[in-house]
């Protein structure tokens, strides 16, 4: 998958200032914070780390420009999420890691995945920040912030639905953020072979993340397309209602569509057909 961000004059833009008043936190106070996980404490060892209190978020980074940009984005994303997902008052800790050595240490401590560049653990979000690819940084951060918002919904939220929401809303928020900076975000999505597309029944029956990386990629891609096409049909303004019914009321996702949105068997079939068509066609977004 390919990400890029381009504006009229430049293709990448760095931090342009902070709209909020942020305060610094000393390394000593961070290390004394009993609210941080053992993983969080192990990541931020050393006086070279920068710690900023931004109200809704606390940012930690091995590079100050990175944490300032990440906090600016996070506050933008949070405002967008408030309009789409059930509210959540959790104060999130952002670990914005620019040094690949620090990232490897964090990554292996979380789950050992070799290809992951972001992770969410309780109220802590760990993101590898590539200063040469701010487009991908925005997408990763937005994706993980959706997971952070949805953590209180577990176990009511199925794996495919949480990943679908994180993929769809994460991309939409990152795109909106870049658009607010006068830039456009796009990606090339290659066509998916029909034999690699799992049915709605198979996808929604998944209760855990596949160990096979290829199957995991199918889960991410196809779940996102399901939510994208669902949002087209019910509207982004009612997506919040859908998620609230599953998350807070404990309803099954398909019961919500039948009872609250009047879905019939034909509607479910039409949705599945459209998802398959979109996946097989590939596209640029």
Molecular structure report:
The protein has helices at residues 27-31, 38-43, 64-82, 100-110, 134-150, 159-180, 200-204, 213-234, 236-247, 253-261, 265-281, and strands at 2-7, 23-24, 50-53, 57-61, 92-97, 118-121, 124-128, 183-189, 283-284. The chain has 2 domains: 2-161, Zincin-like (2-Layer Sandwich); 192-284, no CATH class. The protein is globular, with a radius of gyration of 19 Å. The protein is an alpha+beta fold. 51% of the residues lie in helices and 14% in strands. The chain has a 6-stranded mixed β-sheet.
Key terms for this structure?
globular, 9 strands, alpha+beta, 285 residues, 3-stranded antiparallel sheet, disordered N terminus, 11 helices, Zincin-like
The SSE string, one letter per element, is: EEHHEEHEHEEHHEHHHHHE
Indicate the overall shape.
Answer: globular
Main sheet: strand order? 2-3-4-5-7-6
Number of domains: 2
Mean pLDDT across the residues is 86
CATH class label of the largest domain: Alpha Beta
Indicate the percent of residues in helices.
40-55%
Which architecture name of the largest domain does CATH use? 2-Layer Sandwich
Number of strand elements: 9
Please report which band the strand proportion falls in: under 5%, 5-15%, 15-25%, 25-35%, 35-45% or over 45%. 5-15%
SSE layout and pairings?
Elements: E1 2-7, E2 23-24, H1 27-31, H2 38-43, E3 50-53, E4 57-61, H3 64-82, E5 92-97, H4 100-110, E6 118-121, E7 124-128, H5 134-150, H6 159-180, E8 183-189, H7 200-204, H8 213-234, H9 236-247, H10 253-261, H11 265-281, E9 283-284
């Amino acid at each position: 998958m390919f990400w890029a961000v381009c504006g009229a004059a430049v293709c990448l833009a760095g931090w342009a200032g902070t709209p909020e008043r942020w305060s610094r936190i000393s390394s000593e106070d961070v290390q004394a914070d009993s609210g941080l996980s053992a993983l969080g404490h192990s990541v931020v060892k050393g006086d070279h780390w920068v710690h900023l209190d931004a109200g809704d978020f606390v940012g930690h980074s091995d590079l100050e420009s990175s944490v300032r940009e990440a906090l600016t984005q996070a506050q933008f994303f949070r405002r967008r999420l408030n309009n789409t997902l059930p509210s959540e008052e959790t104060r999130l800790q952002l670990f914005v890691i620019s040094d690949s050595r620090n990232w490897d240490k964090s990554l292996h401590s979380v789950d050992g995945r070799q290809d992951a560049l972001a992770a969410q653990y309780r109220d802590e979000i760990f993101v590898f920040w590539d200063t040469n690819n701010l487009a991908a940084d925005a997408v990763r951060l937005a994706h993980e912030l959706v997971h952070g918002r949805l953590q209180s919904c577990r176990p009511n939220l199925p794996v495919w639905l949480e990943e679908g929401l994180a993929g769809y809303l994460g991309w939409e928020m990152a795109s909106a953020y870049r658009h607010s900076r006068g830039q456009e975000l796009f990606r090339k999505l290659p066509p998916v072979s029909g034999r690699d597309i799992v049915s709605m029944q198979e996808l929604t029956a998944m209760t855990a993340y596949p160990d096979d990386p290829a199957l995991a990629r199918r889960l991410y891609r196809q779940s996102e397309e399901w939510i994208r096409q669902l949002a087209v049909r019910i509207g982004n303004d009612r997506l919040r209602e859908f998620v609230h019914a599953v998350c807070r009321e404990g309803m099954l996702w398909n019961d919500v569509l039948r009872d609250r949105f009047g879905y019939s068997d034909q509607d479910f079939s039409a949705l599945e057909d459209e998802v398959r068509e979109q996946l097989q066609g590939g596209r640029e977004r």
